[in-house]
Amino acid sequence: CGQCSAFCPTGAIHEVTDFGPLREAIRQGKVIVAQTAPATRVAFAEEWGLEPGTVAERKMVGALKASGCHFVFDTNFTADLTILEEGTELLGRIKKGGPFPMITSCCPAWINMCEKLYPEFLPNLSTCKSPEGMLGALIKTYWADRMGKKPTEIFSLSIMPCTAKKDECRRDVLGRRGYQDVDMVLTTREAARWVKEQGFQEWAALPERDYDNPLSEYSGGAVLFAATGGVMEAALRTAYEVGTGRRLESVDFRAVRGWQGIREATVDFDGRPIKVAVAHSAGQARKLLDALRADPEHRLGLHFIEIMSCQGGCIGGGGQPKSNDPAVLQKRAGAIYALDTHMAVRRSHENVALQQLYTNFLGAPNSHKAHELLHTHYRDRSKEKQRTALVLYATQTGNS
Ligand code: SF4
């Protein structure tokens, strides 16, 4: 009825399947540029009845290209970029003594919750946009320039595991000069429905294609963004090696993996203990933040926290295929860790295409240009929450 999306405190209840804007963009002859999130590749095939955890990168790209997309980029590329920007931000905070703990910012449902319910933690949030926001900005600036296109000639379409991304792409800070960086978000389920509507009912009939370049190369660290603890693990790989100048013997930070709702670990940065925590699901995030509210000493002792609003992280996102398999999250996570293990490059800072992007366009991590395009700011919306509660109360009680 629309009531839920008006009152949902995280902006997560926004799933509607109106393909109108996409159809209109195709009709107008716009260049349709899609990006696909890390978690979509291990779930997309489930909509055709395949096992959870089936890795379907090339089929998914082929399906999108056969269904109207001219170019398909991989959000994994900007997951690596997020690590470079966020890792540099963390090292900067370690150098200047805070504010701590720094908290990840790639989950828009968590950002909404922080702005509305925990505004005192706003200075703790990383200023990095989500990987989707970063890729949207690059598509409409760097890539558009290379292609000789105006941003308004491009229709930027995101395929995400996430319903809250539909809310995120409407934020003013995710656009400039009258246009948004991401024009439309389709969840994994909606993207599959779109592809089927184009006549691809059978999995076998889907063509296989590769992602386009130069915005698709990725490391093992990037693909970990799909699972709880993954952003933390990828960030630790880079922050340790860049911060200490030493090479890790093993890049597997097993202490931040797993299914426990809240996990804490201490990582030795060459004699300096760095304390981190990971929380997944909104309930566990609130539990952790309430505990930190009550114990400022513990709060200040932590350096870095990852918060993801969905159980298991994005592999369990609200826009992923529904499943009756009780092991669905384990199967998707298993596929994500296997992908990471088999990558030749597992550290975000060793992504060669990313190094070239810095050389040719951005300069250096946290440079002025990087800040302009890849970082954002937040605002205290706690009053908005109270207003929403009052409107809801008035609606329910008939008082105005
Ligand atoms: Fe979206 Fe859930 Fe991932 Fe957050 S954890 S970005 S709400 S899918």
TrEMBL record:
The record places domain 4Fe-4S ferredoxin-type at 1-18
Q: Which family does it belong to?
A: Belongs to the NARF family.
Name under which the protein is recorded: NADPH--hemoprotein reductase
Of the intact sequence, the residues represented are 206 to 605 of 1163
